[in-house]
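Need tokens for this chain, all 260 residues.
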Amino acid sequence: MFKREKKGVTKRQKKYSIVIIPDDGSKIKKYAFSQRGVNALKVVFICIIIGVLGLVLEYGNMIEKNLKIKELEEHNKELVERYGKLQSFEEEFAQFKERVFKLANMLGVESKTLSSAENISVNQEGNVSGLSENVSEKPSGLPFLKGTKNWVSRSFSDYHSGMDFSASLGTTVISTIDGVVKFAGWNDTLGNVVNIDNEETGYGTVYGHLTKYSVTNGEKVSKGNVIGYVGSTGNSTAPHLHYEVWLDGESKDPRLYVGE
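Here are the structure tokens for all 260 residues:
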């Protein structure tokens, strides 16, 4: 006579028990969990861990963003203060210039002697402009009409061949040089761009990211002529003017010329 062997217990039939033995000698409590229940608890535990890690990463990103926002606010506050000081200086300089002319009239000085002073102004960087001789031979002054609100948002460097001036969309842009429009059209990086050259002096200027331009290729322009309007075309994230100065094929720091 043969004995029937017992079949093995499958994983699904396995059970895990938790036994609680009270110190006071009361009834022992026993809790049993099936394999399926244990697996479900594992999944829930893993989901909780993933959720907590996600919250930690998100909180870290929020802290980093808040720090950057605070840094930008401080920088903007500093720029506003600097601009306010420049405006005050320009007003004082205008009053000084007026007093000079009045004194000259009282002393009988001829107007020709002071004719060059009529073009003296203060640019946004706080430099006195209009004092150099033969200014038409090279770029000089800011590429904006006098009194236009703007500020330098990026300077010239080895990795940036010009200066960026932030200004309101549609702000008038003027030529800083006498010359001929070598190119007025579209560029993938600078968007709508105007390039003005003076072959006699070797100087050239570039005005990029314009919302539109008002000159054509081959057109002769003089310093102060309107050539376009501030935009955000091409590789740009906000309205600004990208301004370059070139001499004999070599880029120059525009800061050396905007104050002349």
